[in-house]
Each structure stands twice: as C-alpha cells, then as structure tokens.
Amino acid sequence: MAPDERLEALREHLVDVLNVNEQLQEQLDSAHQRRERLTDKVDRIERENETLKSSSLYIATAEELLEDGVVVKQHGNNQEVLTEVSPGIRSGLEAGDRVAINDSFAVQTILDPETDARAQAMQVDASPDVSYDDIGGLEEQIQEVRETVEQPLINAAQFREVGIEPPSGVLLHGPPGTGKTMLAKAVANETDATFIKMAGSELVQKFIGEGARLVRDLFELASENEPAVIFIDEIDAIASKRTESKTSGDAEVQRTMMQLLSEMDGFEDRGEIRIIAATNRFDMLDRAILRPGRFDRLIEVPKPDWDGRERILDIHTTDMNLADDVELATLAQDTEGFSGAELASLATEAGMFAIRDERAEVRMEDFEDALEKVKENEDAPGTPIAFA
Predict the structure, then answer these.
(1) How confident is the model at residue 113, as a pLDDT?
(2) Structural domain tally of the chain?
C-alpha cells in the first residue's frame, strides 16, 4: 500500500475513533445525570422513610416551670404531666408557651404563639379608596371621629401635655345608609395604622369558647401591629342586652361579649389601639358596653339635612355627564328624608334612565323619573329600587 493511501486510511480511522469517543462521552454524561436524579430520589425516599418511622409530636402548653422539670398540659385531653426539658429549650421557655411533646411527654421544641387564621384574615392590607371628602353632610361627625381615633395616634404628646387619657373608642349609631361604614373606611385610608375590620356576626361561633378566643386573638393581632384601629360593624350582633335566656346560643354570645368587654378595658394597658364600632340598633345595646372607658364617644350619624343632601348628590354626580338643566339644589329639596346611600342609588337610577334612552347625558327629567319610581315604593317610601 502506498504511503498516501495508508495516511488516508489512518485519517479515516481517526475520524471514526473521534465519533465513537463523542458518542461514549454523551452516554457518560447521560449516565451521570441519571445517577444524580436517582441519588436525589433516594435521598427523598430516605427522608420520607425517616419521617414515617419517627413518632408524631403532640401540642401542649407549658403551665409551670419548676426546678426539676416543667408541668405541661396536653391539648385535647387536658392531662397535666411533670416532664423533663433540655437546658437549651428551658432557657427560652416561659409559662404559657405552646410546646411540642413526644410520646414520653418530653418537650421537643417551642412553638409560635397560636393565632386564629380568621383573625389574620380580618386585617386590611390595602387602604380603602374613601377619603373624608367623599363623605357629605357629616362635618361634625368627621371632626369627632378624627379627634377620637386619629389624634391620639399621630399626636399623643399633646394629650400628655394636657394631662388626659385619649378616648378609647367611638361608637357610631344611626339609621342604615347614613355613612357609618364610610367613616371607618376614611379612617383606614387617612391613617398609617393597622386596620382590622370585622362584622359582629363573625364573632358568633358555634362551639363554646370559640367566639371569645377569636376576640382575644384579634386584640393580640392589633397589639402586635400597633398602632392599630379595630372596626366592629353591626356590634349589636354580640353586644345586645343580656337576658335570662338559658339557650346555649345566647350563652355563647354573652361569653363572647364578656371577652370583648374584658379586652376593651382590662387590667393591662391596651396601648395604641383604638376601637370604632357601628350599629343601626342603638336601642338594643347592653348598657355595659356603652359606659365611658369602653366607648368614650357615642356619635349619632343622622340622615342628612338639605345642605348635606346637596353635598352628597354633588359627590355622587361628579363623574356623571350631567345636562345643564340638572339642579342639585332642587333635587336636595325633593329628597327630604333620604339617606346618603339612597341618594347614591337615586343618582345611579337616573343614569340608568339615560342609558335606557341611549343617551350619554343625564338630564333633569331622568332624576325626576328616578325620584318618581322611588316614591312609588309604598312598602318603604324613599327607598330606591335600583335598576327595577
């Protein structure tokens, strides 16, 4: 074989060897990746196996710390046991802490304080899009609410200089639709405080002690996030006058109210926590919750007068495309006895009449038609029938 032919054959052989080497390298890389996946799977299975083999831990409360151990009460059966605890855990353990114990009742770890998830869900993260300028006819009530709720939070030094304790809470009462809830929303919008809202009915629970526990957790949540404002809407659901009823439901509601009264003026200083409550049934409230120290200001939110109605109509028609013949003063005169919510519904109803006629402009006749429809409601005169 000629030298040139031998050289060409060697070159071809080298190319084949390189191709085989590349294929083997790919197979090796693939094997390494598969080995890593299998290793991860083995590690996961081993951890799961260890978890299955390990015994479950039980939740208990450290009742008392003694020299020779800790008295713990297991949740569920309320069994009290004197048990051991390691020095590392004992150094951070206090009476009342939640702990995890094993089958031998030995303390394994300290758990975070228990807080009802329902209480955390009541914290308002985003401020409502309502300001005091959006509330018409309640200038005096707005001033009193701001003095009671905002001023102690933003200017506590002034209260100390005067030598008085800031008002602890404010109760808003009046007919439905007069702006009580909007006042609370404006407070949430205007202050940097943590805002926690709830309805009184949410505190009425099925099982014994659940409502009282929820009230306690709400105030603990507020204490952890001071300054804070707690708003209780429809407070008459849990603070109605106490009776001699022996039913379990009434008894549970009264237990919840007792917890609320205790949290509002207990032995411990409540700190920078202000309370706003609202109700349509002021006559149903128990005298115990109305006394000074719990609610220092009882603010009536009445139906608006003529000036208030004109201001409310102006607020709710600001974004409406009104014709030149619309006279808000005349409408304010014709809507005596209307609440703020009813006036808002009246403006919406007038807009619906314009849409029905395929117009983009709302005329005075639309408001007159809407007002006429409202007056036809014989069951509740003055109550708008929206979109009827």
Answers:
(1) 66
(2) 4
